[in-house]
Amino acid sequence: MPTKLGPRSLPRALRRARxxxxxxxxxxxxxxTAAAVEHTVPEPYPPDAVLPPVPSAKADxxxxxxxxxxxxDFLTDTFHRQHxxxxxxxxxxxxxxxxxxxxxxxxxxSPNKDVLTTAEIYxxxxxxxxxxxxxxxxxxxxxxxxxxxxxxMQQIGSLRxxxxxxxALTTNGISLHRKLDQMVEAGLTGxxxxxxxxxxxxxxxxxxxxGFEAVMKSINRVQEMNKLGAGVKLKINCVxxxxxxxxxxxxxxxxxxDQDVEVRFIEYMPFGGNKWSQNKMLPYAEMLDMIRxxxxxxxxxxxxxxxxxxxxxxxGFKGRVGFITSMTHNFCGSCNRLRITSDGxxxxxxxxxxxxxxxxxxxxxxxxxxxxxxxxxxxxxxxLDRRKHSSDLRLDGEEGWLTKERQLLDVIGAAVxxxxxxxxxxxxxxxxxxxxxILIGG
Length: 442
Fold this sequence. Notes:
alpha/beta; Elp3/MiaA/NifB-like_rSAM; MoaA_NifB_PqqE_Fe-S-bd_CS; 13 helices; globular; 13% strand; GTP 3',8-cyclase; EC 4.1.99.22; disordered N terminus
């Protein structure tokens, strides 16, 4: 396995402003370049318009360099979609009980031994990055409740040397503010915070827990760090539900007046146990009409390639609003995302119910037992010893666990090739069997 690299360093002003609970790390790295910002256009566009990204000389050069190296066939499906974005759920546990995510009766947690270890997550991350993945997002459950989340992010952050450009986190924000400094040092470039209301009382109704002030503290902390040079892309995710929080749409838009944040309204989607109904689902066009009534000058922005969100901007406002329209205007044609669940299953589509276990294949030579760093090293050494007496070629240009890599990539490639052109429609999804959202990771 590749050796671990130290965390990245923060700007001097940011280090001085760190939370007092943060423990400094001795090694330093330069800050990773944040993703390019979106470009605005003055004229409005219809809600279903598909707009190309604004070209630039720098972007053209990057594209030319990228295109000189063929993208991995293992991560390319039969519709020529190249999957360079991997979402990894690191836990099934959560400290909230959101209505659209957690079934009312709760969930049956997997035994600890069935959940991927840090060594396994890092190994799979490295494997995918070596095949062309340049963005990894850690999800849950709630990823910050995983005890070793910071060391895990430090290990994944070291993959910048292999081509990883973005390391992001989706969180409910309850405890983010306590770990954010260390996460930024580890390489965090983006954070999506789930928040479905700006009303503290309603927050408790929607999440079945308290914690609104903690979430706002995390949002404020990200913004404070960005003012000092952290460069963390901040988005707030709001699942819009008719009759529950639709009255919060305009307050969220108003939030973008003075704050450099993107609020994204997500169409309510059906998952196991969340009691979805079409009557509760608030469509994109209706939300946009609500916003236009108060902010008639709101205009469509140009979206970057593979964006899941349709982004809009009120002239004069610092922030932006976006819409994730999985139910009414799917974006399957440009899908570049793969998902690994916390128990090690690969899902090639959020709304698909087909999964394949990478965990079982990883542990095949370990009698099904979880793999730690020592176990990986032992099996790798066996592989290296075997190769000394054979003519096997190296897979990725450096010594590695060739046989297992090939097996995993064959399974991954076959799953990607089976990916459908688009997910099922609204009526079909309602009747399909799928995991609860908390067990998928979104």
